[in-house]
Each structure stands twice: as C-alpha cells, then as structure tokens.
Amino acid sequence: MTQRGYGGPLRYVQGPGVLADLGIYVEPLAKSALIIIDGFFWNTLTPQIEKSLTERGVTSRFVRFGGESTDAEVARCVAEGRAAEAGVVIGVGGGKALDTAKITAFNIGARIATVPTIASTDSPTSSIGVIYSAEGVYDRVVRCGRNPDITLVDSALIIRAPVRFLVSGIGDALSTWYEARSNLESRSNNYIGDGYAATIAGSQIARACHEVLMRDGRAAYVAAKGGKLTQAVENIIEANTLLSGLGFENCGVSAAHGIHDALTALEPTHHFFHGEKVAFGVICLLVLENRDPAELNEALDFCIDLGLPTTLSDLGLNDVSPADLIKVGELAMLPSNVIHSVPVALTAELVADCIWTASSLADLRKSTRQL
Ligand SMILES: [Zn+2]
Question: Which domain holds residue 348?
C-alpha cells in the first residue's frame, strides 16, 4: 500500500502589523531567542522585535545577517545561538536569512520562527534550507527535520518592498500546481521525511494556489505597484508564501525548477530573480508535457500581463546558441536535477527543443494576442 505524508508549519499568521505579536507566538516555544535579521531592517525592526519579546519574558540576542546562506555564516550563527542558550531561532528577512535561521536552529536543536520581509520565496514555511558558496553559487539542500513552529507574515512590511519581489514570488507560485501535477501523474514522492505520496490536502493546496493566482494575480500586481494593501494583495501574499510553500513541499517540484536550475549555467540569467526564471521554466514545462494549448496561453497571458519572462530574450538570452541549449538540456538531465518527476520520457535534446519552442510560442503569443 502506498504511504502518504504531509507536513507544514505549526502556525501561520498574516496581516498588517502582526509583527508586534511576535512575542505571543514565541513565548510558548522558549525563553531565550536568537534573532537573525537582514541588515536592511537592523535599525527599523530590532527595537520593535526586542520589545515584543521582552513583554512576554523572552530574552533576545540579535545577529545581523551577513547576506549569504553559507556554511561559515551558519557556523557564526550557531556560535551565537549556543552562547545565548537559545531555545528558538527567529529569522527575519528574505529567503537566505530564513534558510540560515532554519539551519542554525537545526544545528542547535532549537525551535524555529520565520518572519519573511518579502513574498518572493518558498522558504518561510518549509523544512528545507539551502546552502550557497560565498560567491552565491548553489551548494546543497539541508533538510532541517522540522517545519517552522510559527511563520509570521506582516503584510504592511511586505507591501513596502519593491513590487518586483511580489511578482517574482508569483512566478515561483505559478509553478506550484503545474509541478504538483507532474508529480501526481508520475507518482513521485514529496519532500516530507524520506518522501511519500502527496495527501489530498497537499494536492488541493497546490490547486488552490493556482486558482488564487489566476483570480487575484493581476489585481494584486496593480495594487502592489501603487503600494496599496488590498484583499487581492493579501490573497497573493498567502498564495506566494503559504500555498506555494506547502504545495511544493507536499507535492514536489519538476521541470519548471529543473530547467531553472540548468539555465543558471548561462551567465545572463544571473541578473534575474529565482521566480522570474521559474516563470519561464513553467512555459517550458507546459510545452515539455504537451499540455492543452488553452492552458499554455492562459499561463503565457498571465506572465506577459505581469511582466514575467516568457522568452529567452526576456532572460537576456537573445544570442543563445543551439550548443548552449544542448548544454542546458544535458545539465537538466543530471540525476540530481528535479526535472525527472515529469510524466514523459526525457532526453537532453528534447529539453533543449522544448525550451526553444516555448520561447518561440511566447513570441508568437505576444504578437498575436488580443489586448
Ligand atoms: Zn522556487
């Protein structure tokens, strides 16, 4: 009999001003906290966080995040955490600050709280952290054994970040349902423990992620560009953070992320955010799986409306050669790549041809669609 598994954060709280309640959620976890905070927020948020924790009898020790989630940075934070005898590690910032906090907590056996300041990554709710080299090159994934005890998303903070972060998060979240479907159809395992089949809960969350994006994505983009925190923006913050985070961990990723990872071998893509490259990967995935043209056009129109990349030239790859694309296809075919959970037989040539075709179909759509 197939075994199914599900995992997620113990608590998820979102809304304007919820950061002031941090102490309420941390108090039951531990009496001593290590806070790893993005340097950008050092002056503005540190006093507020300290006050919230002190009011609940939690002592705090602050570390200014160095900017990269490296082994050395984790070691520094672990030493600080041990010195503070921290029972909980709180990460405040973008994906890399949160990853460092999760891995630090894992190393010292502490509980985890995540406070994302942008809605552009799947890190806040997941049990997975990523280690990079000092130069920012992906090194490896660390499984932290537990999801955060609390994920606190202050939407008043999120709306103040440049809108490109929210849009990039939408690109990443757009992959969630399509990649979940790849895994469901190929009966691949998710990322809970050693890997299980997805639960109904997991797959329905991935589906809901897609529905919210299609319904509210455009309205949220317009509002967020003007700095307005509407219901649609709140819905998209939840889709990008909770629905996408739970969806990918409980169902698995596939070719949108697999092609993203392989494309990073081409230097021009380094100037784009993760979710922007994943959006192009989504178009490639739909071509690779030969999905219904109506579904492909829906995804293309959505990305085009939000300014997410859909062509090679959108990613600065106007001059990409056939040999470059074959190299990307070969990298995508490495056994360690996540592409293999698609329900189709793969070759490096097929991957390269689908990338080229996806880009060409997007060009065609841009020139022919009704505005
Ligand atoms: Zn992603």
Answer: 163-369
